[in-house]
Design brief:
The protein contains two helices and 15 strands. The protein is mainly beta. The strands form six sheets. It has a four-stranded antiparallel β-sheet with strand order 2-1-5-8, with no helix packed on it. A three-stranded antiparallel β-sheet has the order 7-6-13, with no helix packed on it. The longest helix has 4 residues.
């Protein structure tokens, strides 16, 4: 998939790129957004790779910031500063409330446990992002003044079980671990 002309996005598992298919449910195809889907195997580890290809129009920009969002969580960032460069996302870090420590883990396709009834009622807006991998790209230009950056807290707030009635028949079978 082309994120921007000259930027290639791939989802790899076992060192091979997974085929990407056009999403028949997306009616509005804008030039600034591409929606595709992949078929995943539960438990498989994966990596997102974004590659700068020949013909990428750098113009006056100094870098391209690639941000990856998994299951609607906060984004993880990689900067690309040169032709033929690659940005890879294969691990994520999250804050563990139970141990009060940062935990790092590899990306994997997790299963979603279906239950008849549960006391856990997740936010419906978060349910729509389950199983989604969203990649964004932004061109950056250096200026005279650059404000300091702040670190983002990635709290572990993943949804692992949901009432079948909440999904109302929508076919969601995976989350990103």
């Amino acid at each position: 998939m082309a994120l921007m002309p000259g930027l290639k996005v791939e989802i790899l598992t076992n060192g091979r790129a997974l085929p990407m298919y056009d999403d028949p449910d997306v009616l509005d195809h804008s030039p600034d957004s591409h929606t595709q889907y992949i078929e995943a195997t539960t438990g498989a580890k994966f990596m997102v790779r974004v590659t700068v290809q020949d013909g990428f129009a750098w113009g006056d920009c100094h870098l391209v910031r690639i941000t990856a969002f998994f299951d609607g969580d906060s984004g993880w960032v990689r900067d690309i500063r040169a032709q033929k460069a690659v940005a890879k996302f294969s691990t994520v870090s999250r804050w563990c409330q139970a141990s009060s420590q940062w935990k790092s883990g590899t990306l994997g396709f997790g299963s979603l446990e279906m239950k008849e009834a549960t006391d856990i009622v997740p936010d419906f807006s978060r349910l729509s992002d389950l199983g989604k991998i969203r990649i964004t790209g932004q061109r950056f230009y250096y200026s005279v003044h650059q404000p300091p950056t702040t670190q983002t807290n990635h709290k572990d707030s993943r949804i692992s079980e949901v009432s079948e009635k909440v999904l109302k028949g929508k076919a969601i079978s995976h989350t990103v671990e």
